[in-house]
Amino acid sequence: MMKALVTAANGQVGHALSQLAEAYDVDVVSLPRTALDISQAQSIEQAIGETKPDIIINAAAYTAVDKAESDQKTAFLVNETGAANLASACHKANLPLIHISTDYVYSGEQTTSYKETDGTGPLNIYGKSKLAGDMAIVDLLTRHIILRTSWVFGLHGNNFVKTMLRLGKDRDELGIINDQHGGPTAAEDIAETILKLCGFIQKGDVEWGLYHYSGQPACSWYDFAVEIFDHARSLDFDQGVTVKPIPTSDYPTPAARPKSTILDCSKIKNRYNIPQPDWRSRLDTLIQAEFA
Ligand SMILES: NC(=O)c1ccc[n+]([C@@H]2O[C@H](COP(=O)([O-])OP(=O)(O)OC[C@H]3O[C@@H](n4cnc5c(N)ncnc54)[C@H](OP(=O)(O)O)[C@@H]3O)[C@@H](O)[C@H]2O)c1
Question: Which of 148, 206, 241, 289 is deepest in the core (most CB within 10 A)?
Answer without folding.
Answer: 148
